[in-house]
Amino acid sequence: MDFDVRVLPQLSSMILQLIATVVLFFILRHFLYKPVSKFMNERKEGIQSDIDDAKALKSEAIELKSEYEFKINEAKTEGQKIIEDSRKRGEEIKQDIVNEARVEANSIMEKARVEIEREKEKALEEIKLQAGEMAILIASKVIDKNLDMNLQKDMIDKFVDEVGVDKWQN
Fold first, then answer.
1. Which of 8, 24, 29, 162 could pair covalently with 33 via S-S, beta carbons 3.0-4.6 A apart?
2. 3-state class (DSSP) for residue 170
3. Residue 139 burial by CB count (10 A; 0-12/13-18/19+): exposed, middle or buried?
4. What is the per-residue pLDDT across 120-139, written as a single tens digit (0 to 9) for each?
């Protein structure tokens, strides 16, 4: 058994190996590299498209969020305005009711004053009549003279006119 150990390979073997490598390179390039490169480019473009879509959706979501926050703040402001308007309207209604009650109370008090004045005048008239009748009774007993009723009434009216209404009221 002899082994021949060489440091450099044979030239024919090296050329064949080189030709086989070049042929294998072109075959692999044609059947493997181009489809894999095409697939990788398509995949890269798909990923880039997804990233671009995600960025667009994110910016759209940010815009929608800003818009919704603005609308929410607007709704809060409008709600506060409605509450304030309702509060003001309630105060106005309250003030109207109080004013109506005051007017009605003043009206009732005025009617009561008028009624009291009327009753006072009526009472004064009655006192005047009773005082006149008593004065006539006393005078007729003192004089023992019986005057007729018309003469008595004339005397009472004359007496009241002379004395005046102010003295009867005191």
1. 29
2. coil
3. middle
4. 888 888 888 887 777 776 66
The 3-state secondary structure of the chain reads CCCCCCCCCCHHHHHHHHHHHHHHHHHHHHHHHHHHHHHHHHHHHHHHHHHHHHHHHHHHHHHHHHHHHHHHHHHHHHHHHHHHHHHHHHHHHHHHHHHHHHHHHHHHHHHHHHHHHHHHHHHHHHHHHHHHHHHHHHHHHHHCCCCCHHHHHHHHHHHHHHHCHHHHHC
What whole-number distance in Å separates Cα of residue 152 and Cα of residue 149?
A: 5
Query: What whole-number distance in Å separates Cα of residue 168 and Cα of residue 156?
Result: 13
The owner of tokens 């004089």 is 143
